[in-house]
Amino acid sequence: MKNTINWNFDNSYSRLSNVFKEHIEPVAVKNPELVLVNQDLAKELNLDFTKINKSDLSALFCGNILPEGSNAIAQAYAGHQFGHFTMLGDGRAVLIGEHLTNSNKRYDIQFKGSGKTAFSRNGDGRAALGPMLREYIISEAMHNLDIPSTRSLAVAKTGEKIMRENPLQGAILTRVASSHIRVGTFQYVAARDKKNELETLLDYVVKRHYPSLDNSKNKALDLLETLIDKQIDLVVNWMRVGFIHGVMNTDNMTISGETIDYGPCAFMDRYDPKTVFSSIDKMGRYAYCNQPAITKWNLSRFAECLIRLIDKNEKEAIKSATKLIDTFGEKYEEKWLNMMRKKLGLLGTDNKDKFLIVDLLTWMHQNKVDYTNTFCHLMNLKEYDDKIYNDNNFRNWKKNWQERLKLNDNNPKKYIKLMRSANPIVIPRNHKVEESLENAYDNNFESFNKLLEILKKPYTQQDNISEYLKMDSSSKEYKTFCGT
Ligand code: AMP
Ligand code: MG
After folding, report:
1. pLDDT at site 322
2. With contact defined as beta carbons under 8 Å apart, do 262 and 138 qualify?
3. pLDDT at 484
4. How far apart, in whole angstroms, are the C-alpha atoms of residue 76 and residue 424?
5. Residue stretches of the chain with pLDDT short of 70
6. Which tens digits make up the pLDDT trace of 201-230?
7. Pairwise CA distance, residues 450 & 121, whole Å
8. Is the CB of 118 within 6 Å of ligand 1?
9. Crossing angle of helices 291-310/314-325, nearest 10°?
10. How far is CA 373 from CA 242, 243, 336, 356, 387, in A?
11. Which stretches does DSSP call E strand in 322-458?
């Protein structure tokens, strides 16, 4: 296909040996129909969709025609899924290439739901429209919340039915990521037990993501340390906005530090640390409050992959890696505390800060209060004067908070500004997401596009959006599904 779009492919991963991937093209679909395209993202990528007609664009985003310069592959990876190790790989995704922007930033362009690959096992390689739309809206919301995330460039219907419990409309999501290399990618290579393959992957990752480590004396150890920091930053961000990923398997943790794989994820409304939405997470392994511990668990699996690259002497290598993994707790605690200080507008540190924060969270938990809206109330925004905030315990807490606010030359202008930078006003509320997905499934994208628009400015007060700010008033428990 002629390049009218400005694709600028340079497919470095596909040049690695076949250990890392399978060359495969997307399987053509029956009746491509583009339903969403992300013009903002297209602009950021320096892509131009104005010179291509809709039918060609639909064919493109379904993989029926591949752009010039692409070199499609399915990537190999493994993963601990709910704690159990499995060899996986892209079973329903194809990386069509790496696009370079005008400023030489490199992005993977991947089709998700594009047909069977060598890694499909028993799956059909396809994806349903609902979950692809869900990934689109939540990943874009995360990006707009200033949280590192893969992005969504387009969703196209395939015109084919896919069989799940019921027949569903098939669709393909075009996912954009700084790469799709995962902890599970290292696990896959480590499991093959060939040191030179691991070295190749390590060198590739350092060059692509962390070039400043290129001259490091111990790349493996430094990469581990870097990833510990990146993943702590990420999970602290999730905790900040009440995001629950839902399926933090090691294959769903990127080496770039971007949030990936929007399956059963959802945002918490009532504050409850044990919140789980995913219907398959029966033990609560990936509950809101477990996310930091699971991050550490996943990083330990990552460290295991690197052992033989850290030191020839296995004992020494384990010692060095363990030392780094052991820093997790303290680092997380400090970053989490600082994040919560921001949410409360606190400058500097005070040794009672943790108590102040935990007291507020405990009060929210005991009274089943909305997490997002409590911070909006504290920021003095209009429409957050729920009577729950007249509660005596809350008022007492607020007095302590106001005392603490006075420290370090703080003033309302300063603390409100700080709070406004950390506390979203609007998050993707579960009932609004469901409502917009139901309508979109029936080909009415009005509410979907409206929600998408509102979620572009989560930290700004917007007019006439009060229904987007309330938690679901129905008593029904919210459940999410993997969408595979
Ligand atoms: P996920 O739950 O999306 O992280 O997927 C876990 C693994 O299952 C990955 O290797 C996917 O590629 C694979 N997978 C998920 N859905 C399908 C499907 N419909 N067909 C084939 N493979 C799938
Ligand atoms: Mg996955």
Report:
1. 98
2. yes
3. 81
4. 37
5. 1-2, 475
6. 999 999 999 999 999 999 999 999 999 999
7. 38
8. no
9. 150
10. 11, 14, 19, 18, 13
11. none
Contact 176, 150 (CB under 8 A): yes
| Residue ranges of E strands in 361-425 | none
Nearest to 164 by CA among 126, 209, 211: 126
In total, the chain counts a number of residues equal to 484
Q: Is the CB of 484 under 6 A from ligand 1?
A: yes
DSSP annotation of 259 reads B
CA distance 154 to 176: 10
Q: Name the 3-class secondary structure at 453.
A: helix
Q: Is the CB of 88 under 6 A from ligand 1?
A: yes
Q: Decide if 441 contacts 129 (C-beta within 8 A).
A: yes
- Taking the C-alpha atoms of residue 127 and residue 129, their distance in angstroms, rounded to an integer, is 7
Ligand nearest to the CA of 253: 2
Question: Where does residue 386 fall: left (phi above 0), alpha (psi -120 to 50 degrees), or beta otherwise?
Answer: beta
Atom number of ligand 1 nearest to Cα 251: 4
Active site residue 251: yes
Which protein residue's CA is at the shortest distance from atom 13 of ligand 1? 91
Catalytic residue from among 56, 90, 251, 370: 251
Q: What is the pLDDT of residue 383?
A: 86
Contacts of 370 (CB under 8 A, 6+ apart): 269, 270, 271, 471
263 lines ligand 1 (CB under 6 A): yes
So where are the chain's domains? Answer: 13-180, 181-425+469-484, 430-468
> What is the atom index within ligand 1 of the atom nearest the CA of 124?
20
Q: Residue 74 forms beta bridges with which residues?
A: 22
- Ligand 1 lined by 261 (C-beta under 6 Å): yes
Identify the nearest ligand to the CA of 81 by its number.
Answer: 1
Tell me the chain's radius of gyration from C-alpha atoms: 23
Q: What's residue 2's pLDDT?
A: 60
Tell me, in angstroms, the distance from the centre of ligand 1 to residue 149's CA.
19
Q: How far apart are CA 373 and CA 304, in angstroms?
A: 41
Q: What is the DSSP letter of 9?
A: B
